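Example: ArsC/Spx/MgsR family protein.
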Amino acid sequence: MEIWINPACSKCRAATAALDEAGVAYSVRRYLDEPPTRAELEDVVARLGVEPWHITRTGEAEASVVADLPRTEEARGQWLDALAAHPRLVQRPIITADDGTTVVGRDPESLARVLPPA
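Written out as C-alpha cells, the predicted fold is:
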C-alpha cells in the first residue's frame, strides 16, 4: 500500500494513524517533495474513476493556473499538466492498496475501502 501525503495536513496524519492502527504495511510518498508525474496522475484518476479536476484543490494559491480551464475532455491534458507542475493542487491523502483500489482518504468511509475488515 502507498499513501501520498503532505505531513502538514491533518487529514493525511489521520489517514496514516488509521493505517497504523489497522497494522497495515505501507510506504509514504511526500508528494510535495517527490511530485507525481503526469503519467502517475493519469493512472490515479483512472483508478479513482474521476477526472483530474475532481482531485484538484481549487482553494490553493496555485489554483489560478486552472481557474480558466474548462472541465472538458479536450482540456483534460491541461489539467493533468497543471497538477504535475503544481503538486500542491493534488487532493490528499491518496491511498493505493496492493490490489489497486485507490481512494482519496479524507473520510472514514473512503479509508474503510482500503483497510482490512475490523
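The chain is about 35% helix and 10% strand.
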